[in-house]
Structure to design on (615 residues):
């Protein structure tokens, strides 16, 4: 697929491929999205704003230039802003494809990273030498100021110009907790939100700290998505309950929404309000319990986003989707064209255990869980 | 004194280190709000933070496009969301005040950048959070500080008056458009106050005829409290 190289969130010629429950493909304009929403549907978007999560600086022990890309935090509790999971990159920036970047220096526990005004200490090297946990020194306010002033949006070499922070914020962007833009939400503007209301659909949100999508290291990329913190508001949980009682559809705007909702429902098929960390990896083996349809970008086979699509439709259908996208010149990546995909008939909301699809660490100590127990919305 | 309906509200105030803004920051903190304030000068921000360690001070210039998102990130980081935004930071335009015919274009541009584009950009950057507050049952409110110069064509107040008139009209239109999202936007004319800005505009004013900014701040606190009453029920996670 052709990468979308310009940072335009709602290009007037954006397209939308629609895959219905039986796997039929039709081509529409993205402006037609609202018409796919039925009366009574609940449309759920990720309202996370995007942090400028790329931090340039120095690995003090070796004097090497590095780029640190923040990739996760333990929870969305406002006090949890000191510790982050992060990926270390060598010298250079987004203009060099990640797989061609020079290797970063080896980092060890206790190493100091000077990142502009921010000082970070390496607390752990996780399951890959470039995947680390860091703690920022200073007060929460100093950390927010350092991130806000020194951080740059994470971006990739297919974009020709540096991104501004506003390029990465969706119209509905709220708290700055995502590390890369929840870009399916780029299709939303206030007029569209209003038109959903006019169609008597319900528009609600959750907040999910979307992690990073690619590092150029195959072994590391295979570990993605890492655990991602999310928060489901009470009203969103109630709207989901109400929709399920009346048999209405749940439409997710973005893969992050699918991951958060299906992770929240893992225990008993019920979405509770609260904060948690998504460890569920949605893929071919996942039986979707909550989400009926997804609007997302055009994803290429082999990516974790594409894996998630396999929960919605069979591989034969997805192969056709890819072929159609190639034939019709759909554009890929965060500023590209869209895909609306309905869950295939049969992959219904059946309770299944998902322990075999959950990934390992980083995990959350039980005491850090902010899940609101016993709240049914 | 704490104020039941204001306790815990997340409020951001621009121009928070002098005049009405500072008075408002103090009053809102006293009333139990969680307050972030923005001002251009680091020294001023640090001075207020020393006086009120419970405030979140943010250094930033709302007239500069590239500073808006860094300000928004810090506001949202500090407050974990937003209930009320007070766009108070203002520029007089030419100093000393000048008739429009003698006003440099750059001075008019500065007044528009601070008094119109700044509030527009910052409100737009924070609109997602305000809408989220509404979805959670809160009563988000944007207060744009206006002036009688926005209505009456006072000679010598061209840049300021025209920019405040633009802000007031923008406020009315935006308020109408955002009604469906549950976000209110209002203009407040606090009256002629005894503030540093007024002293720059009219150095020889009889200060005894000017309103105390404390009084104006108290009125705005009451306005915020009254607005809370329209909230169906605030449901936020602890």
């Amino acid at each position: 697929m052709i990468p979308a190289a310009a940072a335009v969130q709602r290009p007037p010629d954006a397209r939308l491929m629609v895959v219905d429950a039986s796997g039929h493909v039709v081509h529409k304009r993205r402006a037609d999205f609202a018409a796919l929403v039925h009366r009574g549907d609940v449309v759920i978007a990720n309202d996370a704003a995007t942090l400028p999560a790329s931090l340039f600086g120095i690995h003090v022990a070796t004097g090497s230039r590095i780029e640190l890309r923040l990739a996760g935090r333990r929870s969305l509790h406002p006090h949890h802003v000191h510790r982050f999971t992060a990926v270390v990159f060598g010298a250079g920036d987004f203009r060099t494809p990640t797989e061609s970047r020079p290797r970063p220096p080896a980092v060890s526990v206790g190493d100091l990273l000077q990142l502009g005004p921010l000082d970070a200490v390496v607390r752990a090297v996780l399951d890959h030498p470039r995947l680390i946990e860091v703690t920022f020194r200073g007060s929460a306010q100093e950390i927010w100021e350092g991130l806000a002033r020194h951080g740059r949006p994470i971006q990739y070499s297919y974009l020709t110009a540096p991104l501004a922070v506003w390029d990465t914020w969706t119209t509905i962007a709220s708290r700055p907790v995502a590390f890369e833009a929840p870009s399916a939400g780029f299709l939303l503007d206030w007029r569209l939100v209003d038109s959903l209301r006019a169609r008597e659909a319900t528009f609600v949100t959750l907040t999910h700290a979307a992690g990073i999508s690619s590092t150029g290291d195959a072994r590391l990329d295979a570990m993605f998505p890492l655990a991602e913190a999310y928060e489901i508001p009470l009203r969103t949980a109630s709207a989901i309950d109400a929709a399920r009682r009346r048999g209405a559809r749940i439409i997710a705007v973005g893969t992050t929404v699918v991951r958060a909702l299906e992770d929240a429902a893992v225990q008993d098929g019920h979405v509770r309000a609260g904060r948690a960390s998504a460890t569920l990896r949605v893929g071919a083996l996942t039986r979707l319990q909550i989400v009926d349809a997804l609007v997302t970008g055009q994803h290429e086979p082999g990516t974790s986003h594409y894996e998630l699509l396999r929960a919605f439709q069979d591989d034969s259908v997805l192969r056709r989707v890819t072929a159609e996208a190639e034939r019709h010149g759909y554009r890929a990546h965060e500023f590209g064209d869209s895909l609306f995909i309905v869950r295939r008939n049969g992959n219904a909301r059946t309770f299944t255990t998902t322990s075999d699809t959950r990934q390992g660490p980083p995990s959350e100590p039980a005491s850090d869980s902010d899940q609101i127990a016993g709240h049914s919305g | 004194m704490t104020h039941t309906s204001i306790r815990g509200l997340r409020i951001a105030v621009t121009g928070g280190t002098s005049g009405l803004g500072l008075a408002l920051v103090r009053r809102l903190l006293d009333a139990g709000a969680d307050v972030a304030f923005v001002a251009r000068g680091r020294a001023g921000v640090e001075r207020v933070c020393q006086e009120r360690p419970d405030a979140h001070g943010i250094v930033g210039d709302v007239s500069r496009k590239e500073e808006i998102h860094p300000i928004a990130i810090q506001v949202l980081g500090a407050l974990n969301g937003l209930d009320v935004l007070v766009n108070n930071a203002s520029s007089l335009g030419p100093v000393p005040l000048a008739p429009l015919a003698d006003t440099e274009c750059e001075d008019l541009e500065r007044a528009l950048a601070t008094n119109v584009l700044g509030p527009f950009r910052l409100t737009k950057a924070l609109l997602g959070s305000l809408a989220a507050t509404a979805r959670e049952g809160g009563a988000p409110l944007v207060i744009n500080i206006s002036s009688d110069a926005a209505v009456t064509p006072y000679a010598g107040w061209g840049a300021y008056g025209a920019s405040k008139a633009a802000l007031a009209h923008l406020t009315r239109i935006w308020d109408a458009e955002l009604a469906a999202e549950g976000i209110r936007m209002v203009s407040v004319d606090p009256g002629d106050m005894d503030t540093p800005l007024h002293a720059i505009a009219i150095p020889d004013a009889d200060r005894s005829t000017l309103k105390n900014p404390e009084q104006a701040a108290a009125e705005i606190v009451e306005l915020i409290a009254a607005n809370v009453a329209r909230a169906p029920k605030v449901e936020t996670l602890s």
User: Anything to note?
Assistant: The mean pLDDT of chain B is 95.
